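Support request, please re-run this one:
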Amino acid sequence: MENNESTQSKYDAALAKYNTNLNDTEVAAEVARIIAEKVPANNTPEVKKFLFNCIDLTTLNSTDSDESVMKFTQKVNRFDEEFPDLKNVAAICVYPNFAEVVKDTLEVENVKIACVSAGFPSSQTFIEVKVAETAMALMEGADEIDIVISVGKFLSGDYETMCDEIQELKATCKEHHLKVILETGALKTAANIKKASILSMYAGADFIKTSTGKQQPAATPEAAYVMCQAIKEYHALTGNKVGFKPAGGINCVNDALVYYTIVKEVLGEEWLNNELFRLGTSRLANLLLSEIKGEEMKFF
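Re-run finished. Output below.
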């Protein structure tokens, strides 16, 4: 028991270095101010082109098949030919059993293959299964892995199990990026989101991500603000830069501009590249493309 308590105090000590005593009303007010004052200036063609290049183009349907994923990937190939003046999406995000299909079909450079793994979207399975699924996804061609924290463990205060899992999965990923989904809608409070962000980064996350998109509410500007604050403070203390990915419920161009603005205001220009900023969505691609081109586009 003593060892368990000392381990737990290790996580409490890590959290104690940060202000996690956040007030949800104050966070909401600050986010509303940023949106009102700063978003309009970022509503430019340049920003929209940049945002397009940050998209993790995602298909996570129970109806996905080898054929549908192949067609999905071929659109990304064709994009380079049809829109040579624009940078392509950042990644294609699929279930792990489709990593090889994407790898075999993808012809363009600079587009990564991302896979959701480790019992996505609930994260409710054995750690051995999570590790095996992650290792197999990487073996089949994944460049990046998106996992979900053990939300139940976190909410019941078992930070040790939650962090040990992330550490083990990061060890499996080695140099490949590990994106850790907090499922912020289930965490509910700004304080919980801040704590989960810090613990995930502490355990080895290369990116922290808001949501799976399978649970409501998904991404919110308030959650994004708290996560970016955590990334900023973690960077100040450790020198490590962790990426940020809002996902789920990004339904219009303005939503994307809001997340861009929060990243810019909280983390600064250094984070405005697709190595440190991603948008998990498929709906947004056509909407951004339509605004960039000034006519309705249904390319994807």
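Residues 106 and 136 are 19 Å apart (CA to CA). Strands lie at 55-58, 91-94, 112-116, 144-148, 177-181, 207-209, 243-245, 279-281.
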